[in-house]
Amino acid sequence: MMKNDQINQSILRELRQDGRLTNIELxxxxxxxxxxxxxxxxxxxxxxxxxGYRAVLDRKAMGAGFVVYVTVGLARHLKKDQQAFENAMxxxxxxxxxxxxxxxxxxLLRVETEDLEAYKVFHTDVLGTVEQxxxxxxxxxxxxxxxxxx
Length: 150
Known about the structure:
By secondary structure, the chain is an alpha+beta fold.
């Protein structure tokens, strides 16, 4: 099991902020020698703590800066209905996150579109055509003061 000490937490925090740091830059930021830092990063990767590296996209610059969180309740609580809904969401390009949650509804979606009109099309032509859907509640994001997703 990978140790979860303050140095590893510092390494993870720095990489979450900038996954393109060189090993030398990272070592300097966390107070390690480059070789010790590299060993720790490799162990974090090997153990699965670091699952990969990816680019953080500016969705607004890509024309998809309209963000809506959507809760979805299903009509029935059958496994086949959940699978059908999840398959439909995997095919929907506007859905960037789909979470099966507990509570009064079954799913929480993060939907990104160009604008309100494009979201309305998604709401009607995608969610509105999935037969398992019983309820939809939309929460339009007005601002994002904190977002630490990598």
